[in-house]
Write a structure and sequence with these properties.
Blueprint (H helix, E strand, L loop, with lengths): L1 H26 L7 H5 L15 H16 L8 H25 L3 H21 L10 H32 L9 H22 L3 H17 L4 H34 L2
Helix pairs in contact: 1-3, 1-4, 3-6, 4-5, 5-6, 6-8, 7-8, 7-9, 8-9
Length: 260
């Protein structure tokens, strides 16, 4: 009983600390630098328009909802929440460390923190069996699975963006290919990941996050036809995949009810 309370308290506290660090990063700001201002230094195309980053508000709202839900007395013995707690604490630590590394311009180390964050979220996603196991109730669906579906979608995009920023920082110009061509390749890779998620997990929330990001890339780089065109193409493809998963879900739910 005491161990469950300790776990629930640790998860709740980790969310509050992560939210505080991210909020202060721009409110202070840390090292006198704004997160977006640092990002704008890098001459890369795999970065969406500024408004796209507002998705962090949705992500942190979801994590706060998760923290409250998992802290409820009725969730103290939930085996799925127990299984993901260590991984979630690791993800919070990686998120917070990344903020400090980014603001203090330790860019090579930011990629390590980002990969730890990505890896921990993938592990959480797999342990929750998202797309493979139906949630036990609406609470788990909306306050556990949904926040991590959105979070992982965004960190997938953020990891690719982090790699491109680091390569620019290291002075790699992409030769013999032009930066625009590399952006098309990265968009294609991200679209393939989306297709895999659509086919194996039918995760519309994850896909819609990628649609949001790709459209933001197209809008920001409207003056670069190759990048903008590829981004709009990726947006359309992933949007179609998301629509397909949304249309299939009601049919699957009806079939499940009919076979009970």
């Amino acid at each position: 009983m005491k161990s469950n309370l300790l776990r629930q308290s640790a998860v709740f506290l980790a969310v509050l600390v992560t939210l505080t660090i991210n909020g202060l990063a721009n409110a202070l700001p840390l090292n006198g630098l704004n997160t977006g201002e640092i990002s704008d230094r890098f001459a890369v195309y795999f970065v969406p328009a500024g408004y796209v980053f507002s998705i962090w508000g949705l992500i942190y709202l979801g994590l706060l909802a998760f923290a409250i839900f998992q802290a409820l007395p009725g969730q103290a013995h939930n085996p799925r929440l127990k299984a993901i707690a260590p991984l979630f604490l690791l993800s919070c630590a990686a998120n917070s460390v990344w903020i400090f590394l980014w603001h203090y311009e330790q860019f090579p180390l930011t990629l390590i923190a980002m990969l730890v964050l990505l890896g921990s979220l993938i592990a959480i996603y797999l342990r929750l069996e998202i797309g493979r196991r139906r949630p036990q109730n609406a609470g788990e669906r909306f306050f556990v699975q949904l926040p991590f579906r959105i979070y992982l979608g965004w960190i997938t995009v953020a990891t690719i963006a982090n790699v491109t920023a680091l390569l620019d920082y290291l002075g790699w110009d992409g030769a013999p290919l032009a930066p625009e061509a590399w952006t098309v390749i990265m968009l294609a890779a991200a679209a393939l990941i989306a297709a895999w998620v659509a086919l194996t997990r039918r995760d519309s929330a994850y896909l819609l996050v990628l649609v949001w990001a790709f459209a933001g890339i197209a809008i920001k780089h409207a003056g670069v036809p190759l990048v903008s065109g590829a981004a709009w193409a990726a947006t359309g493809l992933v949007a179609a995949l998301a629509l397909g998963t949304l249309l299939r879900r009601p049919q699957q739910d009806l079939l499940a009810l009919a076979t009970r």
